[in-house]
Amino acid sequence: MKKLAIITGASRGLGKSSALALADKDVDVLFTYHQNKAAADDVVETIQQKGQKAFAVQLDTRDVAAFEVFISQLGIILEREFGRSDVDYLLNNAGTGMHASLEDTTYEELEDMLAIHVKGPFFLTQALLPFIKNGGHILNVSSGLARFSMSGSSAYAIAKGAVEVMTRYMAKEFANRQIRVNTLAPGAIATDFRDGNVRDNPQMNQMVSSITALGRVGEADDIGNAVAMLLSEGSGWITGQRIEASGGMFL
Ligand SMILES: NC(=O)c1ccc[n+]([C@@H]2O[C@H](COP(=O)([O-])OP(=O)(O)OC[C@H]3O[C@@H](n4cnc5c(N)ncnc54)[C@H](OP(=O)(O)O)[C@@H]3O)[C@@H](O)[C@H]2O)c1
């Protein structure tokens, strides 16, 4: 049977690139988007053109209360759209960034970062666990900023640091079902993230290139390809690990 991946936030950016890279490897994709239905519909169409099945669901992954409705519909969606009742892979990818000094960060801003990067993936994974096959693989998206520090990123980076600890605990506890759990930590990638700062701001682009061993900023496909590589049979003995895909930032 073909593999099926659930990806959060695959209407744009790294989630979209991951969905397309997985489709190129013969994987069907069920993914969520937040507000951008038109973009999600385009991704569904592109995956279908590659010969795989795809379906998009609207979900705010910071809204834990909404997960109950999503889960209550999931069995029906899996059966109707994919002719099956379980999934092989989960990519917890959806996320937003922010920029403020620690001194200026508000309570609400820190809460928001923890909601979308920590509480959402924690409780969504918990809710999806009955659907994930024994021997499945969960990838949680962190950031290079959880390893190195850049001013203005404290709330975001603290949340991503929690993602990495969460990954190790998931790997420990889900191992009884042979489910592997790893962290993928991208460096700075040219997407819409943080208003397209890495992609569109020449000074930022230049600064990132100068601190990156491979001499350029990352592109979405650098991460999509890394996801497809990690969510493949060859990674079967890797669990509880943090894999950074940053082109060698701050080596
Ligand atoms: N880009 C980077 O430099 C970078 C570096 C390290 C880590 N990351 C991490 O990589 C992940 C993806 O980033 P990206 O660069 O692909 O960002 P992006 O281009 O802005 O795309 C964000 C995606 O997440 C979805 N999303 C946003 N808020 C959501 C919410 N509340 N609920 C559900 N989905 C939501 C968006 O859906 P809509 O299209 O519907 O809005 C979109 O599909 C994030 O976790 C980010 O922290 C990014």
Q: Could you explain the architecture of this structure?
A:
Helix content is 45%, strand content 17%. It has 251 residues and is of the alpha/beta class. The chain has a single domain, classed as NAD(P)-binding Rossmann-like Domain (Rossmann fold), CATH 3.40.50. A seven-stranded parallel beta sheet has the order 3-2-1-4-5-6-7, with helices on both faces. Strand 5 (132-141), helix 5 and strand 6 (180-186) form a beta-alpha-beta unit. Helix 1 (13-24) crosses helix 8 (220-230), helix 4 packs parallel to helix 5 (154-174) and helix 6 (193-200) packs across helix 7 (202-210). The longest helix has 22 residues, at 107-128. The N and C termini lie far apart (41 Å). The protein binds NADP nicotinamide-adenine-dinucleotide phosphate.
The shape, in one word, is globular
Question: Radius of gyration in whole Å, from Cα?
Answer: 17 Å
Largest sheet strand order: 3-2-1-4-5-6-7
- List the total number of helices: 8
Tell me the major beta sheet. Answer: 7 strands, parallel
Order of helices and strands: EHEHEHEHEHEHHHE
| Overall tally of structural domains | 1
* Beta-strand fraction estimate: 15-25%
Distance between the termini: 41 Å
Small-molecule binders = NADP nicotinamide-adenine-dinucleotide phosphate
The CATH architecture: 3-Layer(aba) Sandwich
- Report the average pLDDT across residues: 98
Pfam families: adh_short_C2
Protein name: SDR family oxidoreductase
Keywords: NADP, Oxidoreductase
GO molecular function: oxidoreductase activity
